[in-house]
Amino acid sequence: MSVQVESPAKMAQLASPVEIEGRSMAILYGSETGNAEEIAIELEDMARRLHFHTRMDEMDSFKLSDLLKVSLVVFVTSTTGQGDMPTNTLNFWKNLRREKLNNSNCLGPVKFAIFGLGDSGYRKFNWAARKLQVRLLQLGATEFFRAAEADERHNNGIDSIYLPWKEEFKAALLEKYPLPEGTAPIPNDQLLPPKYSVRVMPTMEPLPADKSATQSALYSHVDNPAPLSQRRFEHNQRQDATFPAWEAREDQSWEIRTGTPVDVLDKNNILKDHPSKYSLETTKKVGPRTPLPTRLAIPQGVFAKVVDNARVTPFDHWQDVRHIVFDVYGGEKLISKVSDMRGQSILSIYPKNYPEDVQELIHLMGWNDVADKPLDMSNKPKRVFDRVDGQPSTLRDILTDNLDITAIPKRNFIRELTFFTKNRDEVERLWEFLLPGNEQEFYDYTSRPRRTILELLSDFPGVKIPVERVLDLFPVIRHRDFSVCNGGASLTENQYDPDAPNGTLPVFPLRIEILAALVEYKTIIRKPRQGLCSRYLKYLARDTPLTVRINPSRGENVMMPLPTAVQRPLIAVATGTGIAPIRALIQERLEYEVDTQVGETVLFYGGRNRDRDYHFGGEWEYIKGLTVFPCFSRDEEEPVAVEKKEEEKEKKKGGNVWEKPIKTEEEENVEFGIVEEMDPDRGKRYVQNEIRKRAKEVAGLMRRGPVVAVCGSAGKMPIAVRKAFVDVLVGEKLVRDREEGERWLGMRVVYWEDTW
Asked: I need a surface site. Which of 67, 404, 436, 716 has the fewest CB within 10 A?
């Protein structure tokens, strides 16, 4: 292919869409990981080139009445969990489902199209898009163009469905919304104006070189500190120095921890440097330089600090799992809010990029002269947050705190890069990734090796992105959600903290714990990878300040209504770090044992090895009313029930209902009358196998209307577990067939899934 490389002068001439009356489009997305948002970005670019006046936003940022104000609405949504709507659609979906809207035909004038993203490995594939489509039609809206459902499991991922659908959709737009005579679509090789505004703010001219000594002396006294811009510049010089600067960084962490500045003289003329600075022993760097703990003004965010960050798996284990403890400050309002969540809460963490990655990007793009100057961002994406301290952000700040420079590059990003290189070969190579028929090549270069944006830009050194375009090109860092793994009394065990911040923040921290499995792996090209949040959490030091959010978990609150809910038996199924929300639920139920009879709890826990990933295994024997059936798929020994000490005594006296011969799967299938397909789990021990082995006991609990909580990895596990429960209901004659078994689980059991 031959691509015409535009001259810089021609590239500077932006192709602006023409304002045409009655030609408007809203592109609304629901996304957990950013894939649906990327599709929405591409569709908006296409619509702007067809001269539509566009608005792209999360569904939750759109009112139902706003749907009536545009010519056409395009919905792009993924499905999360087991058929759930994404988090940033829940308010919109709640409003759409209001009962008073039924039979109202309130969306009669609305024309819409839907594109869904899903994974056919899940039980409810593309459920969110299907539910949305049905509800819009119920309210009278008209489907302008056929819906499509992309599948992550296809050879070329979602592109196999998306790319043909996009071209057909474009043709339908031109047919039903023809352009006026003399107006043509804007070609893909012409640059559109930026959506967002970024401008480097003017600053004072730097001092001449011969005044540097005077400048240093001027700012050397504590009563005459250097301006903020000067301090930032000097700080980044120290951070990027080639000489060993570990001592200087220790000074920085000491300042944060003690609140006392380093290298200043007090009244007694005593130098307060960090003691290790004077040690004769060579100091060694124990980890990468971590991001500065700049706090962001995140809506509904609260101040937190790290109390502990401990690895709970052996160091030679393939997976690094962290038990991280935070003190979270939000006063009585936050305590009340979390209390109402009844052990079902989510902690949202906003990760940061590492300084060496940020500096590499700054160097590649030639931004060194402007990296530490304040920016004017009068128009920016909603998730690009300002600093809590009110200081204007620099380019280095937003690259560290807000923009995901290590994400896998998407098609729209690569297309935009073609405008910012003068190298003909680079332009041709970039366009080759985007050509129809080259989807596999695009996938092999980007997703298959998990190549990052930073690596792509290193491969194309001629690309120089203008500062003014950073908010348009780079994806925004998304928060990561973690199930809180403690509840009950443990939340308020540290109700007074003398070191809590002064001012408006009260000294009543909540103690919040999470269990995080860090994402670390090697790609097809054998290159080590770490997830953005995993890398951030791995080196998150004690006392690090950060801004977090706490929200309720998805789905039904299984602790309501009280006290009936805690009197029900609890059948909990957890695999790996899925034990986190189960532990919180168990601890929360224990809070009510003084006032009511708490139902018995049975936990089926699944892991690989007892001595490597039996998370919180040492706690269970001390919890009253709890019986645990651990099953480890890679261990040789047969799973053994771990029961509370009181039941161990009863067992010795007269036996126990749990002591029954364990049937083989073949014997179970004969008894249940089930003809199984070839079982991929055969020969291994999984939670679903253990549920079938304990069929009579599980059925006994099922008769009493239990709470069933299934937590862990999404995909096959929750499907297999639900199937095992239905097998138990059929085999123990509680129901006649599987269909009736499904109805039993839907109507006579509180069934809660928290999977990811």
From this structure: 436
Place of tokens 């957990």: 32
- Residue 339: partners with Cβ closer than 8 Å, 6 or more residues away: 491
Q: State the DSSP H helix or E strand holding residue 2, giving kind and residue range, or none if neither.
A: none
Give bridge partners of residue 111 from the DSSP assignment.
Answer: 142
Average pLDDT over residues 627-639: 82
Distance of CA 227 to the CA centre of its chain: 37
Distant-in-sequence, close-in-space partners of 333: CB < 8 Å, separation ≥ 6: none
Question: What mean pLDDT do residues 503-507 have?
Answer: 49
Whether the bond between 461 and the residue before it is cis, its omega within 30 degrees of 0, is no
Structure token digits, residue 258? 């003690």
Helix (H) or strand (E) holding 140: none
Among 548, 510, 507, 513, CA closest to 301: 548
504 vs 302, 500, 735, CA distance in Å? 12, 11, 58
Structure tokens at 284: 């060694």
Sequence letter at residue 137? L
Residues in CB range of 528: below 8 A, 6 or more apart: 520, 521, 522
Q: Specify the pTM.
A: 0.81
Is 702:744 a contact under the CB 8 Å cutoff? yes
Chain segment 551-577, per-residue pLDDT in tens:
999 878 888 888 889 999 999 999 999
Torsion of CA 66, 68, 74, 80, to 10 degrees: 50
Rg of the chain taking only CA atoms, in angstroms: 29
For residue 35, give the DSSP letter.
H
Strand segments, DSSP code E, in 375-479 are 375-379
For residue 53, how far is the Cα from the chain centroid?
Answer: 31
Distances (CA, A) of 54 to 19, 48, 610: 11, 7, 55
Per-residue pLDDT reduced to its tens digit, 658-710: 334 445 444 444 444 443 444 544 556 899 999 999 999 999 999 999 999 99
Given its phi and psi angles, is residue 300 left (phi above 0), alpha (psi -120 to 50 degrees) or beta? left
**Strand ordering across the sheet containing 601-607:** 642-643, 626-632, 601-607, 570-575, 707-712, 750-755
Strands (E), 350-503: 375-379, 480-483
Say if CB 69 and CB 167 are below 8 A apart: no
Q: What is d(CA 576, CA 605) in angstroms, rounded to the nearest whole number? A: 8
> Please, what is the angle between helix 716-731 and helix 738-747, to 10°?
110
Residues belonging to the chain? 756
| Angstrom distance (rounded) from CA 447 to CA 408 | 7
Q: Are 65 and 34 in contact (CB under 8 A)?
A: no
Residue 662 CB neighbours (<10 A):
12
Report the distance separating Cα 602 and Cα 74, nearest Å.
46
Which of 567, 576, 655 has the alpha carbon at shortest distance from 615? 576
